[in-house]
Amino acid sequence: MADVVVVGAGIIGLTAALELQATGAEVAIVTAEAPRDTVSAVAAAVWYPTKVDADPRVLGWGRRTFEVFGVEAATAVPGVTMRPTRMVVRHDPGIPPWWAPAIPDFTLGAAEWHFTVPAVEMVPYLTHLLDRFEANGGTFRRQRIDSFADVDAPLVVNATGLGAARLTGDDRLQPIRGQVVIVDNPGLTTSIRDEDHPLGPVYIHPRSQDVVLGGTFEVGDTDRTIRPATAEAIIERTTQVEPRLAGARVRKHLVGLRPARVGGPRVERAGHIIHAYGHSGAGMTLCWGTAAEVARLAG
Ligand SMILES: Cc1cc2nc3c(=O)[nH]c(=O)nc-3n(C[C@H](O)[C@H](O)[C@H](O)COP(=O)(O)OP(=O)(O)OC[C@H]3O[C@@H](n4cnc5c(N)ncnc54)[C@H](O)[C@@H]3O)c2cc1C
Q1: Is 230 touching ligand 1 by the criterion CB < 6 Å?
Q2: How far is the CA of 40 from the centre of ligand 1 (A)?
Q3: Atom of ligand 1 minimally distant from the CA of 215
Q4: In what helix (H) or strand (E) does residue 83 lie, and over which residues does it extend?
Q5: What is the pLDDT along the chain (299 residues), one digit of tens a residue?
Q6: Residue 33's domain is classified under what CATH number?
Q7: How many angstroms does the Cα of residue 79 sit away from the middle of ligand 1?
Q8: What's the total number of domains in the chain?
Q9: Whose CA is nearest to atom 22 of ligand 1?
């Protein structure tokens, strides 16, 4: 029998499983979906604390995650890079945002902020994490559980994202629907954010072969179907911000439901269950820091 069973194989479950293995534990993963079918695989995924509130714990997780991805980018881990970002500031607060201390080169300007952050291509990265987990002797099983009582292990990690609402009865969890468009990269290398654009939220995240265009933040919306009108509107406003996107070939459309939680992510131990869910639009941004906390709570 494993020492710990991690339920969930998104970015939170996989990183937690690896940190637990690093403490010497025998770890098994049980998951309803394969990593490439999770919400995590839809993420853009750029370091930025989207839809999480200012909180010293969250900042700490973000800092730790930034450091780990920095090392992984420098050592050519699949899918990980550092991405310069230009962020349009329409309502200048005059002071750096609460998350700026995590970013070494954050530069404040009246109309724009500039900074460099980790960016991850999630499908190759999640695959890499699962490979590492299995190479360390971890076991992986596909199974949807109905209750944690069905999981036979001395310690269980609940990394089920939005699935935690049903498993724990946590009524603070709510989906925030996000739709994105993936297009050919016309040669872009800088991420752009313009969250308060008059036509709607704009983010433009170049990757090695393509660009992620976003986005939407539809609170409480559980519809996973692609809405063509939403896609057209995303293309229109992102092209207005970055004209080089004009005519870029659309590769695909994606939708995901961010696991948002009123009060912030739940990372705490209750008896033999360590809860690690509710990372909203920032699961990639907070994953390695969360994983370190899970390992600490396990000890
Ligand atoms: C459009 C979009 C863009 C995003 N961009 C970013 C970004 O740029 N940066 C960033 O940091 N974050 C971003 N996010 C947010 C990020 O994707 C999430 O915060 C993250 O994926 C949450 O990870 P998770 O592991 O908690 O959940 P998930 O990835 O949803 O994984 C949950 C796991 O639990 C399993 N599970 C659930 N219920 C059960 C059950 N009953 N039994 C067994 N297994 C179960 C699932 O199968 C899955 O394996 C974005 C999200 C979206 C939708």
Answers
A1: no
A2: 4
A3: 1
A4: strand 80-88
A5: 899 999 999 999 999 999 999 999 999 999 999 999 999 999 999 999 999 999 999 999 999 999 999 999 999 999 999 999 999 999 888 899 999 999 999 999 889 999 999 999 999 999 999 999 999 999 999 999 999 999 999 999 999 999 999 999 999 999 999 999 999 999 999 999 999 999 999 999 999 999 999 999 999 999 999 999 999 999 999 999 999 999 999 999 999 999 999 999 999 999 999 999 999 999 999 999 999 999 999 99
A6: 3.30.9.10
A7: 17
A8: 1
A9: 283
